[in-house]
Amino acid sequence: MSVLDLARPEIRAMQPYSSARMEASGGQVFLNANESAWAPSGEAGQGCNRYPEPQPAALVEALASLYGVRHEQLLIGRGSDEAIDLLVRAFCRAGEDAILIQPPTFGMYAVCARIQNAAVVEVALTADFTLDVDAVLAALTPSVKLVFVCTPNNPSGRPIPRASIERLAAALTGKALLVVDEAYIEFVDAGEDGSVSDLIERYEHLAVLRTLSKAWALAGARIGCLLANAEVIALLRRIIPPYPLPLPCVAAALEALSPVGKDRAHEHVRIVREQRMRMTEALRDLPGVREVLPSQANFLAVRFEQAAAVYQRLLAAGIVVRNVQRYPNLGDALRITMGTAEENARVLQVLQEPVLHEQALQGDAI
């Protein structure tokens, strides 16, 4: 059985759009794409009068080298969000198929499924936010075409052991595509399980999401990619928009992936790991903090006695954290991203300042 047997037959059969840039084969005078012959004013706009490469060769080369995959096993898009959307549209028939997720988890899996009118099967993580492989497999039905696993998990920060992912991959052979979201994998401590992208060669139905938004500081550039079997990548290239990557974003990504850019990113990741450890210890000692969840991401999920009041208190001081109380098993929690040492110290300062306890209680009661 081919992994493509899991995909929508109409997507496999469709004739993809052929853009002018894809059809071009050399030349010096480009009169085939109805572009402007003049570049816009300003240095930032140079070259933007021409459509960009659908999959820029230099960026494909840089990312394939970074992630240890072949060129044909990689698709670049507008953040990993676009890859999630493409996967759902390619593998899930509206009103018939489904995805499987493990809440609490990243919300875009379910959003993309519901836009496609695909069902969402939920199998909750355990009380300590680990993956229950047996429960996932028990909930699997023939309609489930995609199983999403987020590691380290967002919003808890806990990673999924490699052994659990490999066991799940083996069990899903011929049944569903396993999509492992590794948006935060760069922040995992040395000695912990890293990326499972090396398993793509062994499991043709395994796909891995990666992004430059977090560790590579390019959230505003919207560069992410999917690592997967070459046939899956070729299928998704049929339905991705013809020019997904703006030239300035590609330039920013290539600069970030240069030797100097890599050194800078690695140093920032080191700082995040260090700050994560320090913040974990400091937050645990604060009154009103119930628990700091163990995290291998660039954030901490923190349980408070009065989470809503703490959120407002930080906001009043100009500090914005993520309220994750709506997520299962996190009704008393806030998610705090690791900032600079100075920003993190400011968070601790605000939480340590004397506060009228009555006001906090009133804030929760409103």
From TrEMBL:
Domain Aminotransferase class I/classII large: 43-350
Origin superkingdom: Bacteria
Cofactor: pyridoxal 5'-phosphate
Modified residues (N6-(pyridoxal phosphate)lysine): K214
Example of a GO biological process term: L-histidine biosynthetic process
Catalytic activity: L-histidinol phosphate + 2-oxoglutarate = 3-(imidazol-4-yl)-2-oxopropyl phosphate + L-glutamate
Pfam family, one: Aminotran_1_2
Annotated Gene3D superfamilies: Aspartate Aminotransferase, domain 1, Type I PLP-dependent aspartate aminotransferase-like (Major domain)
Keyword Zinc-finger belongs to the record: no
Keyword Transferase in annotation: yes
UniProt-listed InterPro entries: Aminotrans_II_pyridoxalP_BS (IPR001917), Aminotransferase_I/II_large (IPR004839), HisP_aminotrans (IPR005861), PyrdxlP-dep_Trfase (IPR015424), PyrdxlP-dep_Trfase_major (IPR015421), PyrdxlP-dep_Trfase_small (IPR015422)
UniProt EC number: 2.6.1.9
Pathway entry: Amino-acid biosynthesis; L-histidine biosynthesis; L-histidine from 5-phospho-alpha-D-ribose 1-diphosphate: step 7/9
Keywords, comma-separated and alphabetical: Amino-acid biosynthesis, Aminotransferase, Histidine biosynthesis, Pyridoxal phosphate, Transferase
GO molecular function term, any single one: histidinol-phosphate transaminase activity
Similarity remark: Belongs to the class-II pyridoxal-phosphate-dependent aminotransferase family. Histidinol-phosphate aminotransferase subfamily.
PANTHER family, alphabetized: HISTIDINOL-PHOSPHATE AMINOTRANSFERASE, HISTIDINOL-PHOSPHATE AMINOTRANSFERASE-RELATED
Quaternary structure, from the entry: Homodimer.
Protein's name in the database: Histidinol-phosphate aminotransferase
Organism from which the protein derives: Dyella tabacisoli
